[in-house]
Structure formats: structure tokens, C-alpha cells
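TA notes. Do not distribute before section.
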Amino acid sequence: MKKMNFASITAGLDTLKDVMQQNAEIAQDKLIDVSFIDFAPQNTFAADDTDESIRELADSIELLGLLEPLVVVRDNDRYTLIAGERRYRAITQCLHWSTVPCRVFDGEALSRNRKQLMLHEANGQRDLSAGRQLQIFEEYNALLEEMMQNGGYTGTKLGLIAKKMQISDRQVRKYKRIAEQLTQQEKEMLAAGELTVNEASRLAVARSKKAEPSSGFGEQPEAQPEPSSGFGEQ
């Protein structure tokens, strides 16, 4: 097992720590016409929202009010939702508000990667299925890989992903293996619940072993996993 680089993990967390707070100086609160607000082009977190959950949220907002404003990014005269898609649906579909309180960030001051990170930060507390978590892992992995290539992030990936997704290093390694070994169709089956995460993991392990070159000394017994460190594999 590789030695954990705690300094690198800490540096990585500092790089992405409190993304919303880092951008607070370019945000303002205002009332926005709902017709000027668009959904984020990629929001896996909202994929499992149902009419029932939206109706329940609408009832709560009607009773208690909107406790948190929506978070949007302004691009010219339009606004893209970063946090609050289910709230927006409850407000427009059930309560029929014409305007909604929003925290507005200036799109010109934010890179595409940072906008997507803000969306992940804002939705990180959602209770997601294993299939959805795999999708979130792949999004985080691709996002951080791109940021590493253009110099926007210099830490390590898997440890940070485990921390941001609030899962164990063992689980994040399982998602990594599944992401690398399963076909897109199989991933869609996992997201739809037609394939369990354990079944997907066994399939991925079998394929990864099959792909390993033979040492010429016969098959060796599988090593027992070391105790989890609480951080992701580097």
C-alpha cells in the first residue's frame, strides 16, 4: 500500500475548500424573475427527484418560507442554477411564484470548472444511490483531472474525492475500478438499479485480473486488504 501524502491531501482540500465562500466577494443577493433562470447543463444530483419529493418540498416552503436562497451564476441576462433545482421546481410547478430570492455569482469571474465544483459543493449532502454515486465519482475525477492538466489543482485526486463525497477510501477505489472496467451500458444498468454495486464490483475485479499480464509463476493467492486509512488511494 502506498504511503499517504497527507501534505498533498491537505493542500488539495485547501485548494477547493469552501468553494462558495471563496467566491463570496463576487456574490450578491437579489430577487430574480423565474423565467430568466435555467437549469445547469449537468446536474446528476437532481436525476432522482420525483413529483412526490417536489410536492413535499413545496408544502414545506409554503409553511416555513424559503429558508435558503437559490444559488445562480449570471451570464449576460440569464442565470444558471448551481444550487436549488428541486426548490426551483417546487416554487414554479407547485407554488407558482413569479420571482425567487437568489444568491448571484458573476459568471465572468468563474471558470467552467469552478462553476461545476460549486454545483457539487452545494449538492454534496444529498442521499444518492450507488449508481448515482458512481456518476458523481466520474464527474469529480474528470473535473479534477482537467484542472490538474491546466494547473488549476495540484493536489491528489482519490483522497480528495473520498473526502468531498464523504465515502471511504475503499469505496472510492471500488468506484474507480468500476468506472474503468464497466461498459457504458453496464453503468446505465447500475444507475437504473438493474445491477447492484457489489455485482458491478465483482465484474470489474474479474476483468481487471484478466487484463493483468501473467508473471509466469502461476497464480498467487490474493493479498488481504490492509486496514482503511480514512483517505483515498494516491
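Switch to the second chain here.
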Amino acid sequence: MPGIEAIPSWRSGSLKEHGYSHPLLVVDPMLDKLGLATPLKEGLTKAGISYALFTEVVPNPTFPCVYSARKMAVDNKCDSIIALGGGSSIDTAKAVGALLANPKKDIPDLRGTLKVHHRYHFLIAIPTTAGTGSEATVAAVVVNPETHEKFSLNDPHLIPQIAIHDDSLLKGLPPKVISTTGMDALTHAVEAYIGHTRTKKTKAYSLEATRLIGEYLFRFYSNHDDDEARKQMLKASYLAGVSFTRSYVGYVHAIAHSLGGE
């Protein structure tokens, strides 16, 4: 499937192959605490790649969170970004990349569609939930904590160059996270399917994502050790992300963003 790289263990060949050697790692703090980021960090170190580690990701990334990560990237002269985590980690990384690609602009300047204009050097996204599909989308959702506005930056330059799907990272997810992120993926698929800008491809992807979620979400919810269920839900999340990033979402997400900002 285009855009997916499934690997059994961490490796850093992609970075070196593209000429990058000092990434900013954007990692969910709980994942780092649980040691899920350890194989990635050890793999980079073993390959002789130094990195800066940012673990201050917050749910629904805020302006201060993004600015803090950008400062770390600039201070450490990072030449690439690796995001490990759920949608918040990946969206944080994408927003940081947008700012680094446009050093004279601020987040509000990039709000909306086709405002980024330039691609940051290199971004790898490694999702640890099956729901947001952020590793496949043009969007980075952020929150202004002062105004309580939740909005997105939408630009093809925000799509990660590489998405790595390792279903073993989803082992141990709490049932509540599995169910809510799974319903997020289903919402993406349905909104993309009924949207006025859908295409034959997005329609097909939406239908396949919906079928997979119907077949595997409850299996995954009931048993996170079900290897096939984890793999298929990652696939469903990705397909739903590909679908809605081309067909876009609708009023469900418009309402959710308003509520989420509050």
C-alpha cells in the first residue's frame, strides 16, 4: 500500500539514505516513560545518529507546546523530525515543521489551507494509535490556549515523507483509547465518503476503512494482543486518513474542534 512502511524493528536507514543525521524526536511523554521509545533511541544511537528529545507533547497540542518544540529543534540545529505517538505527537511535529519551513511566520499566519508553501526537510511519522491517520494527512491541528480556538493548518507540504506502521506499538493500549481512536477513524471514513469533493479513490478507501473497522475494532478492543486486529485497524486508520485528507471532513469535525478548543 502506498505510504506505508511496515518494519519488524527500528532502523535508521531512511534518515541516512536521505542525507539527514540529527533529528528532533517528538515523543508522547507517557510512551517515553513506558519505554516504548527506547528501541528507537537505541537504534539511532547505534547507527551513530545524535538526536534531540522533546517529550512535552500535550493532548490537543497548544501554541506553547509547538513553540517549545521548535525552539529545541533550532537550538540543537536539527535537520529532520521523527514523531512517535498518537495524533498529538504527529500534529506537533507537523506544526513544528511548518514553522521551521517558514521562519518569518507564526502559527496564525499558517492557519487555513495552502499557507505553508514550503516543506520542512524530512519528517517520519510513527503512529501508536489506530485512529487519527495523521501520518497520512495534510492537517496539523493546534489549539490557541488564550482564545480557546482549535484549528488546523492544511497543506500538502505537511504530509510526512515516511509513515512507519509497527502494530506492536499498539500492544497495551487501554480499551478506552482503542475505542475512541477507532471511532475517530470511522468518522473520518464516513465524512470523507459523504463529502461533496470525494473521488472514486477516496470513496473506495472510505468503504474499505469502514469495512475493516466494522470487522476488527471490537476484536482489537476486546484483545489488544490480537495481532491481526491491530494490523487491520492501523490499515483502516491510514486509509481513512488518506480519504479525508483528499475529500476533507465536515460538520462533525467542525463541531468537535469548537468543543475541543473549550
